[in-house]
Design a protein that fits this description.
6-stranded antiparallel sheet; 5-stranded mixed sheet; single chain; Beta-lactamase; alpha+beta; D-tyrosyl-trna(Tyr) Deacylase, Chain: A
Length: about 475
């Protein structure tokens, strides 16, 4: 309570002294009744002269939501480099004799988060058909073995602190060493009259063994209020909630239970369609367990991901959890030779600590911000933003951010105001959490790094968004 009153008193004094519209905005914000039970932190820093403009509770560790992606992507850039790519390879074991492969085809995952992604259709093209063409070019017309997907580059566990309600949905898809189609499938739901149960008209892509217990109702809502329940490697899914009534194909996205298996199944189907006979059903290294023998293999072909610069742009611009988790695992893989959440978060925190940043209170449990166990401070966020402003990867990082009123998750922020186009940043949102971080170019040509985090406010998410928007608009006048 003392910290709150002290800050308000100081800000009120500055406002009354007529020093800054920024001070006025923050003074009014801190006095708002919606913050009665809230935890609030903000830090505004002038990158031109390395001076603090205004701060409040800068060392308070709070839940950041998706603003955490700024730290994950910045770390990946610094450790891996903007030109880095991730490689998926097709290999075979055994020998090819008279058109018969007496062995297995192995899809070796390289932790590419975007393989087959709708965002990169022109980049990947018909990658499965390309793999098939390369395999047939070896003279293979039958396989006396199986298609095996190897995703062992990562541990393939979702962060253990993610909540059950998230896991079955597309945004709760965890990183996989062999991801495909961004690890989500789409349910097409048909709704009729008020309070009637919907029906599933289509599931795309087809996922063998998937069973969906549908209890979604069509109601007067105008948005998707449905949730899919089910964990990794579980094929029995339950979906409940509401969608708008009288819709023929309302799309709901769920997380693929086993992306590596689906990748093996897809290649198996394409090869069979092309005329290649395969003796056994597709499988994965995980399913084979101890029976999987790491034979000597020969590479058939490979597929590389887009550059890290491109993947990071997608991650920050559209707040893609899956991409952030892949990048986090690659940090751990590079630094600690272990693609797990635990090793990777430790590597990330250590990296910035070695850069001289005070990491006390930086407790990380994922790379995307989906975990409610994550805590960081606004001072840590701004310190990393300041470091990235001096980095050789500065331009790539800066260009990955959303622009107020124009693009990404900030496209509806400050639209039509003097701040439109002058704020580059990242938003964070989950129930009772709002955060914004990034850079501002002021009307007086100052370059500012800022971070604002609010937890447990007593108003709607929309109201808090508008309150924080007002503050960011005022930053432009600094």
């Amino acid at each position: 309570m003392k910290s709150f009153l002290t800050s308000v008193t100081l800000l009120s004094f500055l406002f009354l002294s007529g020093q800054s519209p920024t001070n006025k905005a923050f003074t009014e914000f801190l006095q708002h009744k919606a913050l009665k039970n809230a935890s609030v932190s903000f830090y505004v820093y002038n990158l031109n002269d390395n001076q603090t403009i205004i701060d409040h509770n800068v060392n308070l560790a709070l839940v950041p939501a998706s603003s955490l992606k700024l730290i994950t992507t910045a770390t990946a850039l610094e450790i891996l480099g903007e030109a880095h790519r991730f490689t998926t390879t097709i290999n075979y074991s055994g020998k090819i004799e008279n058109g018969v492969l007496n062995g297995n085809l192995i899809i070796k995952g390289g932790g590419d988060p975007a393989l087959g992604s709708h965002r990169y259709r022109s980049y990947y093209g018909a990658f499965l058909s390309n793999w098939s063409t390369s395999i047939k070019a070896l003279g293979i017309d039958s396989i006396n073995g199986k298609i095996i997907a190897d995703a062992s580059i990562f541990d393939n566990e979702v962060p253990p602190t993610w909540i059950w309600q998230d896991l079955g949905n597309y945004f709760g898809a965890g990183a996989n060493g062999l991801s495909i189609y961004e690890n989500f499938y789409t349910l097409a739901l048909s709704s009729k009259n008020e309070a009637q149960k919907t029906t599933i008209s289509q599931i795309n892509p087809h996922i063998p063994f998937l069973s969906v217990d549908n209890n979604v109702l069509g109601t007067s809502t105008n948005k998707d209020l449905s949730f899919i329940y089910g964990g990794p490697f579980q094929y029995n899914r339950y979906i409940s909630g509401e969608i708008p009534k009288n819709r023929s194909e309302f799309k709901v996205k769920g997380s693929i239970p086993d992306p590596a298996y689906l990748c093996a199944y897809e290649l198996d189907s394409v090869l069979k369609t092309s005329g290649i006979k395969i003796a056994y059903q597709p499988t994965t290294k995980r399913l084979l367990g101890d029976s999987f023998i790491e034979d000597t293999t020969i590479e058939v072909t490979l597929t590389q991901s887009p550059t890290l610069a491109s993947l990071i742009q997608q991650t920050n611009l559209y707040s893609i959890n899956l991409y952030a988790e892949h990048l986090l695992n690659h940090i751990g893989l590079t630094v600690k030779k272990e693609g797990s959440t635990t090793a990777s978060t430790e590597a990330l925190v250590s990296f910035w600590k070695e850069k001289g940043i005070d990491t006390d209170g930086m407790y990380l449990y994922d790379g995307s911000g989906l975990s409610r166990f994550n805590t960081i401070t606004t001072k840590q966020l701004v310190s990393i933003l300041s470091e990235m402003d001096k980095s050789q990867h500065k331009e790539v990082f800066y260009n990955s951010l959303s622009i107020a009123g124009k693009s990404g998750t900030l496209s509806n922020i400050a639209k039509g105001t003097a701040a439109e186009g002058k704020i580059y940043g990242k938003s964070g949102y989950m129930t009772n959490v709002r955060s914004y971080s990034g850079y501002v170019t002021t009307n007086s040509n100052k370059k500012i790094a800022f971070a604002i985090i609010v937890n447990n406010y007593n108003c709607s998410a929309y109201e808090m968004k508008k309150m924080l928007e007002k503050i960011m608009v005022n930053l432009v006048n600094e």
